[in-house]
Design goal:
This protein is an all-alpha fold and 280 residues long. The chain has helices spanning 4-29, 34-39, 44-64, 72-101, 107-112, 117-139, 144-169, 174-179, 183-204, 211-240, 244-249, 253-273. The chain is 80% helix and 0% strand.
């Protein structure tokens, strides 16, 4: 029988190594070193990096609380393998974000040279949402590696579908406003992305016995996202703050923060209160 204190310390030690590897990969795949930006007193890339590390922490947590075999060595090995997989997927998410979401301009340049907080906030949201989705993927009780990859791809696809919908229903161009250093737009969008990540995490964690019901649950989840977004924006614009879209377009940071907090709050309520599985 393993010593619980010793096994806990081993997991913590291995987790620290995973975090260190995550930082090395971040420095390798992005055109700036986070240490250099900190020394230069540029906090903007640090915002994006903070979302990345929070996402990695979510991945490690998901890997740890996943299925166990009641065998410490095997469980530790699976923890390491799923953690490494999650770290790789997190870095892929960052690359996809630049190529698919923020493809109209150079995100690194915006954060390093222009110190664009809005762009950093969007990256923060994408990293954290990706980490939540990946955490749910590696926590699943069935399907193993293949199902984890399928759910990851599906989750990221839904994130980008959401981005397109969000861009369509807002009375301003996301890319144009971000490029004009509109921080409020980036902050609001970052919060919406995190909210969708929470809902997708909820759906992925659903206790379904087979792939058919799992696919049906994802469809229900996608429809809920399509319904949820306009509903929240209606509440924001008509109940909480009048003309919030106008304020955000005018780079009102407070309005951007209100949207960030409101949509994440709604997503948390849905996460804990709504059971999508009853619909499939």
């Amino acid at each position: 029988m393993e010593n619980p204190v010793l096994t806990s310390l081993i997991y913590v030690f291995v987790s620290c190594i995973m975090l260190f590897i995550s930082k090395l990969l971040f420095n390798k795949f992005y055109p700036y070193k986070i240490e250099e930006q900190i020394k230069a007193d540029n906090c903007v890339p640090v915002i994006a990096f903070s979302g990345y590390m929070l996402g990695i922490t979510a991945v490690l947590t998901g890997s740890f609380i996943g299925p166990t075999a009641q065998n410490f060595k095997y469980d530790l090995l699976m923890y390491v393998l799923y953690s490494v997989l999650g770290i790789v997927l997190m870095n892929i998410s960052g690359i996809i974000a630049d190529k698919v979401v923020l493809y109209k301009f150079d995100s690194a340049k915006e954060m390093i040279e222009d110190k664009n907080i809005g762009t950093a906030a969007v990256h923060f949201g994408i990293y954290l949402a990706s980490g939540l989705i990946i955490a749910a993927c590696v926590t699943g009780e069935y399907g193993g590696l293949i199902s984890s990859l399928i759910y990851y791809v599906s989750g990221m696809l839904f994130l980008f579908i959401f981005f397109k919908i969000y861009d369509l229903i807002t009375p301003y161009s996301i890319h144009e406003e971000l490029e004009k250093d509109n921080y409020a737009v980036g902050i609001a969008l970052g919060g919406n992305i995190i909210a969708i990540g929470l809902i997708l995490m909820k759906a992925t964690l659903g206790d379904v016995p087979d792939w058919q019901r799992g696919a049906a649950l994802y469809l229900v989840d996608l429809l809920s996202i399509v319904f949820l977004l306009p509903s929240i924006r209606f509440i924001l614009c008509n109940i909480i703050i009048k003309n919030i879209n106008k304020l955000i377009k005018e780079n009102n940071t407070g309005a951007g923060l209100i949207e960030f907090i409101t949509v994440v709050s709604f997503a948390l309520l849905i996460f804990f209160m709504v059971d999508f599985t009853v619909l499939v």
